[in-house]
Amino acid sequence: MSHAEENAANIAAATESPPTPTPERTANDTPLARVVEFYATFSPESVSRFGEFYSDNAYFKDPFNEVRGIPAIQRVFLHMFEQIAEPRFVIVDQVTDAGGAVLIWEFHYRMKAWKAGGTQLMRGVSHLKFDADGRVNWHRDYWDAAEELYAKLPGIGCIFRGLQKRLSA
Question: Which of 2, 62, 98, 101 has its CA 20 to 30 A from that of 30?
Answer without folding.
Answer: 62
